[in-house]
Write a structure and sequence with these properties.
Elements lengths: L2 H20 L1 H20 L1 H7 L19 E2 L5 E9 L3 E8 L4 E9 H6 L3 H11 L10 E6 L3 E7 L6 H8 L6 E2 L3 E2 L6 H19 L3 E2 L8 E3 L5 E3 L6 E2 L23 H5 L6 H16 L9 H10 L8 E2 L5 E2 L6 H10 L30 H5 L41 H12 L16 H4 L39
Parallel strand pairs: 1-5
Antiparallel strand pairs: 2-3, 3-4, 4-6, 5-6, 7-8, 9-12, 10-11, 13-14
Helix pairs in contact: 1-2, 5-13, 7-9, 9-11
């Protein structure tokens, strides 16, 4: 410190000391206030930790804010074409924007299903997250609309199809059953699997760093876009993890997701967090390199039992009775170690532990050694390094998706919706707010304006999104609905 600055500082200090000496009552009052604030900060550490949460800045793409408002379309703006996929409560179809003459994708959810299965909260959460998460490997919604029967979400068309389709193309259809009736038709090339896994890990790190669990990792939800990169779709099972009283990230207890990709702690329903997604990543890599998941069975209970046992093996390369060579596990030693670190029953031994991908432990694995993560995230890879780039020709939108034999919808009369149901569906379509618990830097700029609107969803309102901890029991139900029915309202 320069002498002049030091001198001025000393003078100020001496003046403060003189003033304190002259007025000891003020000094005592200041000391009392300081001790009181210290006591308050210790008592309210949990709430203060939430209020003073640091702004999240993605290490690869930098600071991101809330996405611009989505459009509210009309049903006459689109021409419904072919079916690209189906879900438990939704159907994904190829549509054409009549005004723009561009191909889009529509996720159609029947209002009867939303009302009958009480899916208001989950559909609303998905709509909010679609306008909150801004990442190159997470799907973006262009807008939404509703008609008399359905609520429709509009997305950009990802022409490459999902990883399940790429896996089936990579497999040899001539290979037959062997080794305990498993179809060992082989998997994808390890270099290709690692390339796609870098995008999945990057997207999960972006979610986990903001206390969001994806709960939907599987080949069908990893879709290849027009540039050949994987994008995570279907945010219907995502949820925020709130802070507990001590300021730590709490857990959730809901049983949901595909049985083959469910982690042991989810089945036991003793509480889980972001570590459940890491388990699913291990299952995904195993399946892409082998051709089948490590835990499988004829029904969900059998799958859950095998997951609880935690026993699996990496199949070896063998020669079958038919003379064909079965490749077994298509990865090397580093790929095996990565899968093994993700499929640890003990969460404390699992890669990333309770933080999941938030702390960057997944991308630091030896399997990803030499990966240029910023190059991946900024989509600057060389064309020869991208395993597959779909055709952008008009008329080729459907070629990379599986064929669906769709039965004609049976004409049925929908029961009239109650007035409160109609009003709540209207709120979902017109909603511009962000989910409860969203970090402050990701909240919509219009949230403050919406607080004055009658139909707005307040960020500070006590909205419970997850169930309370259930009593300990055996294997849970094998239902794969978005959430269990015993959830607290």
């Amino acid at each position: 410190m320069p002498r002049a600055e030091a001198k001025s500082t000393d003078s100020v200090t001496s003046l403060d000391a003189d003033s304190k000496a002259d007025d000891p009552s003020k000094a005592d009052s200041k000391a009392d206030e300081a001790s009181k604030s210290t006591r308050v900060s210790r008592q309210d550490r949990g709430s203060l930790a939430e209020r003073k949460e640091k702004e999240y800045i993605d290490p690869d793409i930098g600071k991101r804010g809330a996405i611009a408002d989505q459009l509210v379309y009309r049903s006459t703006d689109f021409e419904i074409l072919e079916t690209l996929g189906t879900g438990t409560f939704s159907r994904v179809k190829l549509v054409r924007n009549v005004m723009e003459d561009r191909m889009r994708v529509a996720k159609i959810i029947r209002k009867s299903d939303i009302v009958g299965h009480d899916l208001f909260r989950y559909v609303s959460m998905e709509v909010k997250l679609l306008r909150t998460l801004d990442h190159p490997f997470i799907v973006k919604s262009l807008g939404k609309y509703q008609d008399e029967e359905s609520l429709v979400l509009i997305f950009e068309l990802l022409r490459g199809g999902d990883l399940h389709r790429r896996l089936s193309i990579a497999q040899d259809p001539d290979r037959t059953l062997h080794e305990r009736d498993r179809v060992d038709a082989g998997g994808m090339d390890e270099k290709h699997v690692k390339f796609y896994c870098t995008q999945i890990v990057t997207a999960l790190q972006h979610m986990h760093a903001q206390r969001i669990i994806y709960r939907g990792v599987k080949p069908e939800n990893c879709v290849i876009d027009d540039d050949g990169y994987v994008v995570l779709v279907d945010l219907g099972l995502c949820t925020f993890l709130p802070f507990d009283e001590k300021g730590k990230v709490s857990k959730t207890y809901t049983l949901c997701g595909t049985p083959e990709y469910t982690s042991p702690e989810v089945i036991l329903r003793n509480g889980y967090g972001r570590e459940a997604d890491v388990w699913s990543v291990g299952v995904l890599v195993y399946e892409l390199l082998t051709g089948y998941p490590p835990f499988y069975g004829s029904h969900a209970f059998e799958v859950y039992r095998k997951i609880q046992e935690g026993k699996y093996e990496f199949p070896k390369k063998v020669k079958g009775d038919d003379g064909l060579v079965y490749p077994g596990f298509g990865g090397g030693l580093r790929a095996k170690n990565f899968v093994a670190s993700c499929l640890q029953k003990n969460v404390k031994k699992r890669r990333g532990r309770e933080d999941g991908a938030a702390n960057g432990k997944l991308r630091k694995d030896w399997w990803f050694y030499g990966t240029d993560w910023k190059k991946i995230t900024r989509r600057l890879c060389e064309f020869r390094d991208v395993p597959f780039v779909p055709s952008l020709d008009r008329g080729s939108e459907r070629v990379n998706f599986d064929e669906f034999v769709i039965e004609e919808d049976v004409a049925r009369k929908l029961r009239p919706l109650e007035p409160e149901d109609v009003e709540e569906l209207d709120l979902i379509v017109r909603d511009r707010s962000t989910p409860p618990g969203t970090p402050f830097h990701l909240r919509s700029k219009r949230d403050s304006d919406d607080e004055e609107d009658e139909g707005s969803v307040h960020l500070d309102s006590p909205l419970m999104l997850e169930a309370e901890a259930p009593p300990e029991s055996g294997l849970a139900s094998h239902s794969i609905k978005p959430d269990s029915e015993d959830e607290d309202e």
